[in-house]
Design brief:
elongated, 12 strands, disordered C terminus, Rossmann fold, four-stranded antiparallel β-sheet, 597 residues, six-stranded mixed β-sheet, ABC transporter transmembrane region fold, alpha/beta
């Protein structure tokens, strides 16, 4: 209970922070709605009794006009307050939704990248994003509804008590089964949905395969549509069939509970009709007690339904706070040191790293240095650990052991955001932004001054300027295929943009992970034939499986099975006749055979 009370408090804190004005208005309008129904049933009682007296006495209609107007006014206020309440709650809900998405997005971009290597993280994220935008508001509305229901119920119970105390007991007793039902099945449904999160993510994944852009080509070429449809149906059915069984059982029990309520109403009708027939109740009083009992049924349902809703909310909101409370381990350790332009170089010492769930090292005891202004190439087979090493150097991951020093300072003593500003990277799996061509490049450094000139300069170096100029709106043309008036690019053109983005970023260290894998041979030749001019003034780490593209590097580091197997210049490694020699000669032989069939 202490945990749930803390969750309620934290949730209400989020609601208030997101829109304090709308939250206050919500509370006030709810209080008003609590008293209007009581006023309405009293006026209806008076109206019916006055009509009865008027008919009996043969008086004229004008005597009851005032009551009719009063009933209409209260009814009008009740309707208006309902509409106003819906408007207020909708505004508050939108504000809260925006606020919660802000919290989720801010947390997501701050969390350590290693989280994305854990399936459990995706389960946690999925549950949080599905519940976070509306659960805190549901808690507030349930509390307000419970408060309003309690006030209204007390008023209606007072009316019924004036006739007979047993009617109040009857009113409370017949609603107990329904409340138990809601609480009991809240636990069952929550535990079921939590256990089915992987299935929900799996069905969402198969849906993306059937509807997404990237899978669309292979889907049609290989004719896998029906196969993925069947996989989606299986995952979706497994997720929903048990849920429907639980809901069906809850519905059947609910029908029994509603039957008990109907019998209670029957007892009331028999009782008040008998009292009215014997002359102990006026018709107006009879109508008032029937309406009070009916309203009391609604209010007790709202009261205990809101209580059950709060219990249900407490189960689900915990998933949101579980995500928001995930720890961020990649942060600056004490003593903190400033980040500055690289003066001496980078040092990697005894670095080891293992991905979560793996039993073997991806990198093991890796050590090397990169001097300022030096061009160092990383070579080796797929899976050797080259891209992982880039993520460690840029501190997207922290190693299991070992240290990386930037100008002699352990990078763990530098603020991660400030440290990463010293790097510009073209990742092997670079991003495709469905935005304007110019914005695609500018994203590399959103704080850059004189951006327009530098954007065009970076585009010219990466050989994408002419292509952009020929687009309908030049650098303002939206690229991709998600939005209207956009133009799709080839994969090679996207890669040129990614390279331009990295060159646009004015960082002292440039890391290029397979930066020209999709480029045509002419562009590739142009870039690498003047590579030193392109990267002039920057310390550069280059990864490429095309070994002819890295032969000019000041130093080549060969990584195999997560360890450094050899280091040297191209000439030195060729003389050593090791792994690099074997890889290079095989590539040269293959290309030679292709050019001289």
């Amino acid at each position: 209970m202490n945990k749930k009370a803390r969750l309620f408090r934290d949730s209400l804190g989020l609601v208030w922070k997101s829109a304090p004005g709308w939250a206050a208005a919500n509370i006030l309008i709810s209080l008003l709605q609590s008293f209007l129904p009581l006023a309405l049933i009293f006026l209806i009682r008076l109206l019916i009794d006055r009509i009865t007296e008027t008919v009996s006495a043969g008086s004229g209609i004008p005597e009851i006009i005032g009551l009719i107007i009063a009933v209409v006014v209260i009814y009008f206020l009740d309707e208006v307050s309902t509409g106003a309440g819906n408007y207020i709650r909708r505004n508050q809900s939108i504000k809260l939704e925006s606020y919660m998405f802000g919290l989720l997005h801010s947390k997501s971009v701050r969390l350590d990248l290693i989280n994305f290597e854990h399936p459990a993280y995706y389960d946690c994220l999925s549950r949080a994003t599905s519940e976070a935008p509306w659960r805190p508001n549901s808690i507030l509305n349930n509390i307000i509804s419970m408060f309003r229901g309690a006030v209204s119920l007390l008023l209606m119970a007072g009316v019924l008590f004036s006739l007979h105390w047993g009617l109040v007991v009857l009113l409370l007793a017949v609603n107990v089964p329904g409340i138990w039902l809601r609480l009991h099945f809240a636990d069952i449904l929550y535990n079921f949905q939590r256990s089915r999160t992987p299935d929900a993510r799996k069905s969402a994944y198969f849906s993306w395969l059937l509807t997404g852009d990237r899978p669309s080509r292979e889907l049609r070429l290989f004719g896998t549509g029906n196969y993925f449809i069947s996989l989606f149906k299986t995952a979706f059915a497994r997720q929903k069939e048990e849920e429907l069984r639980i809901i069906r059982k809850r519905t059947l029990i609910g029908i029994l509970s509603d039957t008990v309520k109907a019998l209670a109403l029957l007892l009331l009708l028999v009782y008040v009709t008998g009292r009215a027939a014997s002359g102990n109740l006026t018709l107006g009083q009879m109508a008032m007690f029937i309406l009070a009992f009916r309203q009391g049924m609604s209010y007790i349902r709202d009261l205990f339904g809101s209580l059950a809703g709060l219990y249900e909310d407490s189960l689900f909101i915990g998933d949101t706070f579980e995500f928001l409370n995930l720890k961020e381990s990649i942060k600056a350790a004490e003593p903190q040191m400033p980040a500055s332009i690289l003066r001496t170089g980078l040092e990697v010492r005894d670095l080891s790293f293992t991905y979560p769930g793996n039993t073997s090292h991806t990198l093991k005891n890796v050590s090397f240095t990169v001097g300022r202004g030096e061009i160092v190439a990383l070579a080796g087979p797929n899976g050797a650990g080259k891209s992982t090493l880039v993520r460690l150097i840029t501190r997207l991951y922290d190693p299991d052991s070992g240290v990386i020093r930037y100008d002699g300072t352990d990078i763990r003593n530098i603020d991660p955001d400030a440290y990463r500003k010293m790097f510009s990277v073209v990742f092997q799996d670079f991003m495709l932004y469905n935005m304007s061509a110019g914005e695609n490049i500018r994203i590399g450094d959103l704080e850059a001054a004189d951006a327009e000139t530098r954007i065009r300069k970076a585009a010219a170096v990466s050989h994408v300027h002419d292509m952009i100029n020929n687009l309908p709106a030049g650098y303002d043309t939206v690229i991709g295929n998600l939005f209207d008036d956009s133009r799709e690019l080839s994969w090679g053109e996207w890669q040129k943009l990614a390279l331009a983005r990295a060159l646009f970023r004015n960082a002292p260290v440039l890391i290029l992970d397979e930066p020209v894998s999709a480029l045509d041979s002419d562009t590739e030749y142009e870039i690498f034939s003047r590579f030193r001019e392109v990267v002039r003034g920057r310390t550069t780490i280059l990864i490429s499986h095309r070994l002819t593209n890295i032969s000019f590097a000041d130093r080549i580091i060969v990584i195999s099975n997560g360890e450094i197997s050899e280091t040297g210049t191209h000439d030195e490694l060729m003389k050593a006749r090791g792994i690099y020699h074997r890889m290079y000669t095989r590539q040269a032989s293959r290309f030679g055979e292709c050019s001289n069939p």
